[in-house]
Design brief:
Length: about 200
């Protein structure tokens, strides 16, 4: 049996045309696992309890915050698709590859995993350390596929800042998690059914 060596791992940039569905999903789930681990470790280094941060709130007020911001973001996104040239909002085709032909349950699963992992890191850990402004700059930077155009980069920053504000005002991380989930789910379903028709 051949011994595994970490040095054998080769990392190289792939274009969307080179990505198979399996490779895309492995990359997605791997990066989300890394995001979750970094978030949990960072929270522990802050001497905070991740379970306390993820405590589900007693009231349903967080739903109004999460749903309200999601509706606003979806309306703005809808307007942007009509006033901004399509190539300006291009993400390199990654979202289309990810959601095109994907079953609804899998789109919902992806949206749930991404929203929990990213919000735990960015709102739960990074925002606690740096505040919503710098967290939103970092959030925009890690969405590297949008950095080629200033409009989607600005929109990712503004969306992140909104998520940070509803986290502060609602007092629970479940408000930004819900908002993030709704946005990703809706976007995934739009891509799936738009491409299907």
């Amino acid at each position: 049996m051949k011994k595994f060596k970490f040095g054998d791992i080769k990392v190289k940039k792939a274009t969307p045309e080179q990505l198979t569905d399996r490779l895309l999903l492995v990359n997605l789930y791997f990066t989300q696992a890394i995001t979750l681990i970094i978030g949990l470790v960072w929270i522990l280094f802050q001497k905070r309890n991740p379970f306390h941060i993820l405590n589900f709130p007693e009231g349903a007020r967080f739903v109004a915050w999460g749903l309200g911001l999601a509706v606003i973001m979806l309306i703005v996104d809808f307007v942007l698709t009509y006033i901004v040239p399509e190539e300006t909002m291009d993400d390199g085709g990654i979202n289309e590859l990810l959601f095109r032909g994907r079953p609804i349950w899998h789109i919902a699963l992806i949206a749930a995993i991404v929203s929990v992992c990213e919000e735990l890191l960015f709102r739960g850990a990074v925002q606690y350390a740096f505040g919503p402004y710098w967290t939103s700059i970092l959030f925009a930077i890690i969405h590297v596929r949008y950095l080629r155009h200033w409009i989607p980069t600005g929109w990712v920053f503004a969306s992140s800042y909104g998520l940070g504000l509803i986290y502060i005002y609602s007092g629970t991380i479940w408000a930004p998690i819900l908002c993030h989930f709704i946005i990703d789910l809706f976007s995934g379903l739009v891509i799936r059914y738009r491409r299907e028709s």
